[in-house]
């Protein structure tokens, strides 16, 4: 059968086609072992003959290929050892006025023979910085003039490395493509789809993508592969949807006059419009006899917890139990404390007689064993309606009487596997699931794009929430640097508290003692919690200011103690890693300083700054960086600076990460990433694919007509990826 051939060809070992030496080199460079992996190593771009590469856009510290013209050559002797340096300056304009790039060749006899003023060549190497200019040292090069006249086709520029430069990839790809035939790479998309969308056959698409006659052919081939990915994923999800439709959950309709109603009546504030609308959506879901699978999005501080709590109470009223999963012990404990407080007497089991109050338990890894045993008993008997905890809740010892709802807070911090483990705790049916986040992880955004996850959104903050102002602090400028520390002191003098977040806990042995003297010394090195604490301790203006460190290497009790005393106002400045990232709620904290902010991801930064401005006092977040204002990573910081809309940020995050990991855990040799499809840019393609798949699945003869397609989906998604998709 054709599909079997397809798998065997794409999964065939490269060495069978390219020889041992080449295949070993490819494995070393990219980890590729199969034909399919190399085939999907697509060019990043193409160079048209006569077109030069814009030098100002070259990424620093990456391996690049540049087509440019030599504008100057020179030679100098080495001072300290024998030999000479042959220096070539190239430009990206044929006339004068282009951007220039220097290249150096140590003992460059060959380069001296080959490269003259006016020569146009393709250079490959790593972009470095030398004195005040960009340079490539010891680049590989291929002179273009004659070759390009003989063959006017665009030149593919591949992701390459020093050991596996562009030219070699091109040669190997050419060699591999010689083995191509229609039979070996058969089409599996339905022909009528290819016709409607004007896509080339699969075999032709690979040829066009790697060696297009014209660039527009490569573009169409790219669309085809992106569509293929969207289509296959959508098909897999469609199949899954049919299975999920068959899954059972217990309906948990509201019961008037019980905990949920009592809770609403005792709330000290009125719910916002958004909270009410979202609450209604969730309540309706819980009434269904199939599992809810809903994402609750809302900015930090938008009041998601109250919404979740109302859903929890509805389930408890209907006789079920709920579990609230938090990513850290600190956060779980904080949820426990604030939920107990919000519930008041409603958290006392049996207080009002049968079915009135309910037990609320905290269960974390550090729980004492006596307490733990008691808690487990309450959970197993059903006396405890709400269990709050970390992933310790997933341990096998935890037996629920009737788990009806799983709420996952700050979902971006959890693996899908963990959530799944908890959901499997329900005995005969699947519990309803609600995941909450301020910044959805890329995979979640993807799932909503694919129409696979229901979403509820809280857009407006509750009244009285103060705004957060965010600023980038360029550390290269002394004025800003000094001001940063005065700003911290001022904040403390006002009676407020400050977070200082550093990208790591301690310095490596080699750096210890070097970084501590002053901030200037740390330029280029990320500042650690320990050196920050030491540095602040040594600054006269910080005399009398109480600082404390918090990070993951402290034991749980110490962490808790520090957090507690910060919450009580006994610490002025808390220096920490991202352990304080989520949920921590200290109303008096008004300033957050994030050191070397470019080291953090978009959603992390957004989560972090949500820690300030929580108590009606306006919050400020200062993000420091040593990078130049026009560095790409500073662009990311500017995005954070410009908006507090979590959804906008999630999209920016997704665009930046290129959706690499949405298909799940990276498995060697498996297809766990999207190659061509961009969740952001190809949205309309995904919608098209969804329509196409819907039409296909509606076809009464679907199974018999598309047997081949079904097995192609099987091959396309490997076992672990399919399993992964099935879990969420
Ligand atoms: P998040 O969405 O970040 O989880 P929380 O649920 O922690 O936000 O809510 C932040 C704060 O706002 C809490 O102190 C909560 O009690 C309060 N809050 C929630 N809803 C409202 C509301 N409708 N009016 C006023 N305050 C509210
Ligand atoms: Mg929260």
Automatic annotation (TrEMBL):
Q: Helicase ATP-binding domain spans which residues?
A: 285-458
Q: Which residues form the Helicase C-terminal domain?
A: 484-660
Q: Name one GO molecular function term.
A: helicase activity
Keywords assigned: ATP-binding, DNA damage, DNA repair, DNA-binding, Helicase, Hydrolase, Nucleotide-binding
The organism's place on the tree of life at top rank: Bacteria
Listed name of the protein: Probable DNA 3'-5' helicase RecG
Which organism is this protein's natural source? Glutamicibacter nicotianae (Arthrobacter nicotianae)
Q: Which gene encodes it?
A: recG
């Amino acid at each position: 059968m054709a599909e079997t051939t397809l798998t065997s060809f794409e999964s065939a070992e490269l060495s069978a086609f390219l020889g041992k030496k080449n295949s070993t080199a490819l494995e070393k460079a990219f980890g590729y072992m199969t034909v399919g992996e190399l085939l999907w190593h697509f060019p990043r771009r193409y160079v048209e003959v006569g077109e030069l590469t814009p030098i100002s856009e070259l990424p620093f510290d990456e391996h690049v290929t540049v087509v440019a013209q030599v504008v100057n050559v020179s030679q100098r002797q080495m001072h300290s050892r024998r030999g000479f340096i042959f220096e070539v300056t190239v430009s990206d304009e044929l006339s004068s006025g282009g951007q220039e790039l220097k290249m150096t060749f140590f003992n460059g006899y060959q380069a001296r023979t080959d490269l003259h003023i006016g020569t146009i060549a393709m250079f490959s190497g790593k972009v470095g910085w030398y004195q005040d200019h960009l340079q490539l040292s010891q680049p590989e090069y291929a002179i273009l003039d004659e070759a390009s006249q003989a063959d006017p086709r665009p030149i593919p520029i591949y992701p390459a490395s020093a050991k596996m430069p562009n030219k070699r990839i091109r040669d190997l790809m050419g060699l591999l493509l010689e083995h191509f035939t229609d039979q070996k790479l058969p089409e599996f998309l339905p022909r009528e789809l290819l016709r409607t969308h004007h896509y080339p056959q699969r075999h032709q698409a690979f040829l066009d993508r790697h060696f297009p006659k014209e660039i527009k052919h490569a573009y169409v081939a790219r669309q085809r592969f992106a569509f293929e990915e969207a289509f296959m994923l959508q098909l897999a999800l469609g199949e899954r949807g049919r299975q999920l439709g068959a899954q059972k959950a217990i309906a948990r309709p509201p019961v008037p006059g019980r905990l949920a109603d009592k809770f609403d009546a005792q709330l000290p504030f009125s719910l916002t419009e958004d909270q009410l609308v979202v609450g209604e959506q969730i309540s309706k879901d819980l009434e269904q006899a199939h599992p809810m699978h809903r994402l609750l999005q809302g900015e930090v501080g938008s009041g998601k917890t109250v919404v979740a709590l109302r859903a929890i109470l509805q389930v408890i009223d209907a006789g079920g139990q709920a579990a609230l999963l938090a990513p850290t012990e600190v956060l779980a404990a904080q949820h426990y404390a604030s939920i107990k407080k919000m519930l008041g007497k409603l958290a006392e089991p049996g207080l009002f007689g049968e079915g009135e109050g309910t037990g609320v338990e905290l269960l974390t890894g550090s729980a004492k064993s006596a307490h733990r045993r008691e808690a487990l008993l309450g959970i197993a008997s059903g006396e405890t309606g709400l269990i709050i905890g970390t992933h310790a809740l997933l341990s096998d010892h935890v037996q629920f009487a009737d788990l009806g709802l799983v709420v996952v807070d700050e979902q971006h911090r959890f693996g899908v596997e963990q959530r799944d483990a908890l959901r499997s705790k329900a005995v005969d049916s699947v519990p309803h699931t609600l995941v909450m986040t301020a910044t959805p992880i890329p995979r979640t955004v993807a799932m909503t794009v694919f129409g696979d996850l229901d979403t509820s959104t809280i857009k407006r903050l509750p009244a009285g929430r103060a705004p957060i102002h965010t600023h980038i602090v360029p550390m290269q400028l002394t004025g800003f640097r000094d001001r940063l520390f005065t700003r911290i002191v001022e904040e403390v003098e006002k009676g407020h508290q400050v977070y200082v977040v550093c990208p790591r806990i301690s310095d490596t042995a080699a750096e210890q003692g070097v970084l501590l003297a002053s901030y200037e010394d740390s330029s280029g090195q990320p500042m650690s919690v320990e050196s920050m604490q030491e540095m602040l301790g040594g600054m006269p203006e910080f005399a009398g200011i109480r600082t404390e460190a918090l990070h993951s290497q402290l034991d749980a009790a110490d962490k808790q103690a520090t957090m507690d005393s910060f919450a009580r106002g006994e610490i002025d400045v808390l220096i920490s890693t991202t352990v304080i990232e989520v949920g921590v709620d200290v109303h008096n904290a008004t300033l957050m300083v994030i050191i070397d902010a470019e080291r953090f991801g978009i959603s992390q930064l957004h989560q972090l700054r949500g820690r300030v401005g929580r108590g009606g006092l306006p919050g400020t977040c200062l993000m420091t960086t040593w990078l130049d204002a026009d560095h790409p990573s500073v662009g990311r910081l500017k995005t954070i600076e410009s908006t507090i809309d979590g959804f906008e940020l999630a999209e920016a995050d997704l665009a930046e990460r290129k959706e690499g990991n949405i298909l799940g855990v990276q498995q060697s040799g498996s297809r766990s990433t999207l190659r061509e499809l961009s969740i952001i840019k190809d949205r309309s393609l995904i919608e098209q694919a969804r329509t196409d798949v819907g039409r296909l699945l509606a076809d009464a003869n679907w199974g018999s007509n598309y047997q081949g397609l079904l097995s192609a989906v099987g091959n396309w998604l490997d076992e672990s990826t399919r399993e992964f998709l099935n879990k969420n």
